[in-house]
Structure formats: structure tokens, C-alpha cells
Amino acid sequence: MNILDYNKTSFLKSYSKTTDIEIQDGIEIAFVGYSNSGKSSAINTLTNQKKLAHFSKTPGRTQLINFFEVVSGLRIADLPGYGYAKAPFLIRKKWQKMLYDYLEKRNQVKGFVFLMDIRYPLKKLDQKIINIAFDKKVSILILLTKCEKMTISQQNIQFNIVRKKLNFLLDSFEILLFSSHKKIGIKKLRSILSNWYNKYIILNK
Ligand SMILES: Nc1nc2c(ncn2[C@@H]2O[C@H](COP(=O)(O)OP(=O)(O)OP(=O)(O)O)[C@@H](O)[C@H]2O)c(=O)[nH]1
Ligand SMILES: [Mg+2]
Predict the structure, then answer these.
(1) Does residue 34 line the site of ligand 1, with CB under 6 A?
(2) Domain CATH for 147
(3) Range of the domain at 27
(4) Which of 7, 33, 41, 109 is most buried by a 10 A CB count?
(5) Is the distance from the beta carbon of residue 155 to the nearest atom of ligand 1 less than 6 Å?
């Protein structure tokens, strides 16, 4: 199986509304999760670039749908995080609407990478949005992020809890222990996304 070369990924464009997105060709993989769960950091780690996606200690850093092109026909979408309680109500609603619109209207999205801080997995909005993704019958990968914050045995406990709770997804998902800071799970992430690309692009040619 061919593993994609992620290192050449480049910034494509940002959008504030799904309906503004004019790109129709190819497929997208969306990185979603609570604000501060490590989405932008994971994209930088995946692509071996320090500042491709902007990351920050302050939640709410990503406020637009940002597209990155891995190879022609494959984009990664970095979405604003949900659930950032300190953002003003109207801004929070705007980000939420952006995400739901994207989930509902964007047929080019063929895979979701859900990022959850391993210490607080499957919070309310995670469960809600995973359900929507499941109904879309797209590929789902769960990254339990910042895993280096826990011991190996704690990591395994969290891993099993999440797997059990998501049993209803009928095995149509994968879970990875992941750390951008310690580069844990990167190889597996690269290979899973390459698989998705092969499945949707190569097989549909
Ligand atoms: N300990 C640890 N911290 C991490 C890791 N990955 C990201 N972080 C930190 O978590 C914070 C949030 O990271 P971001 O990548 O900006 O998170 P985000 O999900 O894109 O956040 P929003 O754009 O607000 O939705 C930053 O301070 C990162 O340095 C990790 O593997 N381990
Ligand atoms: Mg971000």
C-alpha cells in the first residue's frame, strides 16, 4: 500500500461558510473536536511542518474552515473547535453552525478524524457529532490526544472505555493513542489516512 507523502501539504484556502466553498473535485478529511483538543497541532505533526495550521494555548484559535492540500484531490479540513465556553455566545453559535453546515452539506468529506483529549473523551458534543458522522457512512478515526499526559496503563484504560462506548458504531471506526508532542501514533495516522485516500480515490477511478 502506498503511504502518501504528507510533507508537501500546503495551505489552500479558508472559508467562513460551507456554502462559500467552490472546490468540488476530490475528497476531504475533516479534523474535528473540542476546542483545544489538538487538531491544528495534529495537522502540523502529520505533515511534519511547524506552522502550517495555527495552534495556540488559548482555545478558539481556529475560527474558519481551513483547507490544506496533501496531493491533488485530497484535502484536509481544519475546523474550528466546538464547546469553547469562554467565547461569546454569538461567536460560539456561529462556529457551531459552521460545523453542522459542513457536516450536513459537504458531500466531499469522506473521513472524520475526531480528536479528544485522552483525559476527557466522549464529551456531550463529541457524541452528538460522532452520531452525525456515523449516519453519513463515512470513515471515522478517533485520536485520543495528549496521551503522553497519562501512564501507559491509564492510556489503555481510556482506550478500552472509548472503544466500549462506541461499540454501536459497529466496528466502522478506529481508535489511536496519539501525541503531537511525543510523536506517538503518527505513523499509524499516516497509514490510515492513506488507506482512506486509496479507498475513495483510487478505487473510484
Ligand atoms: N501535552 C500536549 N499538548 C498538546 C499536544 N498537542 C497539542 N497540545 C497543546 O494543546 C493546545 C491546543 O492545541 P491546538 O492544536 O491549537 O488545538 P485545536 O484543537 O486546534 O484548538 P482550536 O483551534 O481552538 O479548536 C496547544 O497549547 C498545544 O500545544 C500533545 O500531544 N501533548
Ligand atoms: Mg485549531
Answers:
(1) no
(2) 3.40.50.300
(3) 6-202
(4) 33
(5) no
Neighbours of 173 (CB within 10 A): 19
| Nearest ligand atom owner, CA of 45 | 1
Q: Tens digits of per-residue pLDDT, 188-203? A: 999 999 999 998 876 5
Atom of ligand 1 nearest to the CA of 35: 25
> What is the total count of domains within the chain?
1
Strand pairing class (173-177; 27-33): unpaired
pLDDT tens string 45-100:
999 998 888 766 666 666 789 999 999 999 999 988 888 777 788 888 888 888 89
Residue 123 lies inside a defined structural domain of this protein: yes
Regarding the beta carbon of 180 and ligand 1, being less than 6 Å apart is answered: yes
- Which ligand 1 atom sits closest to the C-alpha of 180? 31
Q: Is residue 1 part of a domain?
A: no
Decide whether any atom of ligand 1 lies within 6 Å of the 92 Cβ: no
- To test the pocket of ligand 1, the residue of 31, 34, 41 to mutate (highest count of ligand atoms within 8 Å of its CB) is 41
